[in-house]
Write a structure and sequence with these properties.
It contains two helices and no strands. By secondary structure, the protein is mainly alpha-helical. The longest helix has 23 residues. It is rod-shaped, with a radius of gyration of 31 Å. The N and C termini lie far apart (100 Å).
């Protein structure tokens, strides 16, 4: 049987990776944003001050 493969033939092209599509980002990505964290810290501190005012001074 004859060897029909030719050494000079280029390798078959591999499937090119598809460009990444924009994946939906979840809640953890949103929580890592500094403006949101500052906003949540301000709201949390206001709630803490209000609760301490109610518990200790009223």
């Amino acid at each position: 049987m004859l060897d029909t493969t030719n050494q000079s033939d280029p390798a078959p092209p591999h499937d090119e990776p598809r460009p990444r599509q924009d994946e939906p980002r979840g809640c953890l990505f949103a929580l890592s944003q500094p403006p949101l964290m500052i906003f949540l810290a301000v709201i949390g501190s206001l709630l803490l001050m209000a609760s301490l005012h109610d518990l200790l001074l009223l």
